[in-house]
Amino acid sequence: MQDQELKGSEARLWGLIDQRTRPDADKPGLDARIWELFGDDWAIMFTDLAGFSRQTAEFGIIHFLQIIHEQKRLLLPLVADHDGILVKIEADSFLILFRKPSRALHAALAMQAECRRYNADRLPEERVLLCLGIGYGRVLKIGDSDVYGAEVNAASKLGEDTAKANEILVTGSARAAMGEVPGITGYELIEETIPGSDQNFRVHYQL
User: Fold this and answer.
1) Which of the four CATH numbers 3.30.930.10, 3.40.50.300, 3.30.70.1230, 1.10.565.10 does domain 39-205 have?
2) With bands split at pLDDT 50, 70 and 90, how would you rate the model's confidence at 5?
3) Which pTM does this prediction carry?
């Protein structure tokens, strides 16, 4: 995208980033301005579908499009019901923001419950097998177009690479800020190292 096509928050951010590249730049001062403009605490949810690439290779692109359609139809109304903000969709993955980690976890439970209901009478290749990762912390939110930060990276790794079908994984920061959520029976420490988060947990839940 050309600079003249950028508007609002994106234009402001990249203008400051451009200033930061100059040899005489006051990087600490510019960084403070960027965080003041765009920094805030958000819960970040990444979703992914288990086995999706394999199924697409086996059943073809139209099958791919059908599952994407069904995922949107099933899950996006639940995101709205829990006051989530959909930032982007990339293939079978969603990036969603919530003001509070507890809202993100409530939404995750509702999404897993809806997938379980939907999958009950479906063929294996038609099931929506949801993987979820949730982080929480100070991030740079650029309008409604993108979000950056360590907890974003950790949530992405948890949801897209680490979680298995039907799992909800959370960072230590998200867990610490969640409080009591009905349906949660415990948290299991994940031994795998996740960049951006020192501790990460598998959520045990009942639907």
Assistant:
1) 3.30.70.1230
2) low
3) 0.91
